[in-house]
Each structure stands twice: as C-alpha cells, then as structure tokens.
Specification:
Structural class: alpha+beta
Number of strands: 6
Order of helices and strands: EEHEEEEHH
Strand order of the largest sheet: 1-2-3-4-5-6
Number of helices: 3
Mean pLDDT: 88
Distance between the termini: 44 Å
Low-confidence stretches: none
Number of domains: 1
Length: 163
C-alpha cells in the first residue's frame, strides 16, 4: 500500500495568497557577507524593531560561534507568517555547490528572542513556496558566481545581486 495516498497535499480549506519579497542588500557589510531579504504579506514591510532584533540575534550567535562564520557567502530571510510569527532562515553556500540552512523563529508573547526552530523526524520541511522564490534567485546568483573566476570582484557582484 502506498502511504503517500494517505497524506493530504493541500487542504481543501487552504486559500493561497501573495507575499512580497524586499531585498535589503548586505546588512552590516563590515561584519558579514550575507544578503538580507524580508518576506511579508501585502505591502506592509516588516517592522524595523523586528529586523533589528533578528540582526542582533545573528550577531550574538556569530560571536558565540553558534552559527556559520561571518566570512561565508550566503543570505538570510526574515519571513513574517500570519500576524506575528517569524522565521529567520540563515543560508550559506558550502562544499562548492551546497546550500546549508539553519532556521530560527520568533513568536512575540511566547519568546523573548529568536531561537533555533525545533524539527523532529527524519523527513523535514525545507522552504515554503515564498521562501523558495528567494532560494531560486540565490541559486541562479550562486551559479553565476561558480562559473566566474571567483575573484573578490565576483564575490561583490554576487552580494550585489538581489531581488
């Protein structure tokens, strides 16, 4: 028996909607080489206080050695889900052509800061459809970098290539 037939791919009650992606370039370029994206519903940008909290969290984690080195190339997305739940995705390129990720979350009223998002089980989610738009763009930008001479100027071009 095929167990996949027991899984509901899309709930009949689900109604899809559009979200917008705001590229902010390289945030704090003196401290890292990560591009920053906000993902949010409608035209309302993510509040600067939430973005500051997320950036401060990543800075502290880098200092503590809990997340990848500031010298890695990659990107971050801050995704507002619903009214106030946030995913913070840290994605870096490793081993030539692999995208590695760490996902954090912030739930105002339930957490005071961002924290590692718990994921149990062998088959885990990766990215939602809106986050995949960022990943798709970044995949093309990284491929262009890999096909280049990979000079410091090519790294700069990669970092300047945002949605």
């Amino acid at each position: 028996m095929n167990k996949m037939s027991e899984v509901i791919q899309v709930s009949p009650a689900y109604r899809h909607y559009q979200k917008r992606i705001y590229g902010h370039g390289v945030i704090q370029p003196e401290n890292n080489r990560l591009k920053w994206y906000d993902i949010t519903r409608g035209r309302d940008p993510i509040e600067q206080s939430i973005r500051d909290l997320a950036q401060g969290f990543l800075s502290r984690q880098t200092t503590l050695g809990g997340i990848p080195s500031a010298q890695e190339l990659g990107f971050v997305f801050l995704h507002r889900c619903g009214e106030g739940f946030y995913f913070l995705g840290l994605c870096t390129w490793r081993k030539n052509n692999e995208l590695w990720k760490t996902i954090f979350y912030f739930d105002p009223g339930k957490t005071e800061d961002f924290a590692l998002f718990p994921q149990n089980g062998p088959h885990k989610d990766t990215f939602c459809v809106w986050e995949l738009a960022v990943v798709s763009h970044e995949t093309l930008a990284w491929t262009t970098y890999l096909l280049s001479d990979r000079t410091p100027q090519d790294e700069d071009t990669y970092l300047k290539t945002i949605i």
